Every structure is written in C-alpha cells, then in structure tokens.
Amino acid sequence: MKLLALDTSTEACSVALRLNDEVLALDEVCPQQHSKRVLPMVQQLLSDAGLTLSQLDGLVFGKGPGSFTGVRIGVGVAQGLAFGADLPLYGISTLAAMAQAAQRLHQARQVLAAIDARMAEIYFGEYQLDDSGVMQLQGLEQAIRPELLQPRTHSAECTAVGTGWQTYGAVLQQWQPAQSTDILYPSARDMLTLAGPAWQAGSFVAAEQAEPSYVRDTVSWQKLPGR
C-alpha cells in the first residue's frame, strides 16, 4: 500500500508518505505559506522514496475543520494531484488526526481535541481508542463556545490536544481536567494511520467526490468601528 497524505488546514503544513509499513513525513509551521510549501514538500517526499505520483495507490487529505482558506487549499491540491494521476481520495478529520497523534506519542486512550476557531469558539471533538488502535469519534464534531460545552457523563482520564486548549485552557480545564500535551496541530503521518482501515474497506472516492468538512459553515462578521 502506497499512500500520500497532506494537510494545510491549520498553521502547520504537513505531508506524509506511506510505503507499506514505512512512513516518511515532513511537518512545518508556516502560517499563510501553505500554497507555496505543500507541493515542494510532496515532491521532496516522492523524490526521497524514488516514486512518481502515478505509482501511488491513493491520496489522503485533511478535510478540516480548521482555517477556511487552509482547508480549501488542501482539498484543492489533493484533487488536482488525484485528477492528474487518476488516484482515489479520502478525507480525514484534523481533530481525529490530533487524537491519533496523542495515542502514538502518549499512549492516550481518550482524547479531547480542540482547535481555536476564532470568534470565541473552538472546533471540538471527543475520541476514544478502539481495539484496533484507531481513535473513534464519540458524538459529533462541533463549533462551540468553550463555556457552552455540555457536562460529560463520565470522568475517565483524558488527554488534551490542539490550539483550543492553548487559547481557552482555563475554561476547558475547569469543564474537564485533562492531561496537557504539546500536540497543537494535526500531522499527515497520523492521517495515514486513520486512512488505513478506509483503504481496506474500499472507502476511497473519486477526486470529484472529495469534500471538505468546515463544521462551521456560516460565519458572522462583525463590522469594525468606523467602517
């Protein structure tokens, strides 16, 4: 199985290549530079592996949530590459990818993932590790003000990931104490792990069927004073 994953949905730009059991990955924090960096990073990994795009089996992309512009860049680049090489696609949640990173790096079993969504909101999802070592979403991903999160029905030890915990840590820790980590952004490496079961199940789709997941589809802009 040869899969390439890319993500540009947050401040980080991430690309990873899976060759059977081996993974090559590049991660850069480069705000507003994703459109310039993502294709060179893809080419670097393919060159390091001695592969061309057409030799891959499929592409994986970060479908969001995250920056609207960043999500669109990632989906657009993935679709362009897929059309050119006639490859199938599969989208992975950025929140799920961070949860999977917590399992890989900290052996976490229950993860609360939160991305700063601006406008006093977070993109939020709760994940639980299944028996195969893959993080599974509990409930729904949502865009919500941190103080409006509903009380949890259980108090199992949780791991915190994402910039939402950095920005709204005091509120979130009061709502549910969680073990803090240094995982702020999703990595394409973990998207490959999550895409494995989808590949085995035949869930990859044609390029024209790839869709983003903004979670928050409508945005209310406040008029600036004097404008």
CATH architecture of the largest domain: 2-Layer Sandwich
Q: What portion of residues belong to β-strands?
A: 25-35%
CATH superfamily of the largest domain: ATPase, nucleotide binding domain
Mean pLDDT across the residues is: 94
Distance between the termini: 54 Å
Q: Indicate the percent of residues in helices.
A: 25-40%
Fold-level CATH name of the largest domain: Nucleotidyltransferase, domain 5
Question: From the alpha-carbon coordinates, what is the Rg to the nearest angstrom?
Answer: 17 Å
Shape: globular
Structural class: alpha/beta
Unreliable residue stretches: 219-227
**SSE series:** EEEHEHEHEEEEHHH
Give a count of the beta strands, DSSP E runs of length 2 or more.
Answer: 9
Output the CATH class name of the largest domain.
Alpha Beta
The total of helices stands at 6
Strand order, sheet with most strands: 3-2-1-4-5
Strand count, sense and barrel status of the largest sheet are: 5 strands, mixed
| Assembly classification | single chain
* Number of separate structural domains: 2
Family: Belongs to the KAE1 / TsaD family. TsaB subfamily.
Pfam family, one: TsaD
Main location: cytoplasm
Organism: Alkalimonas amylolytica
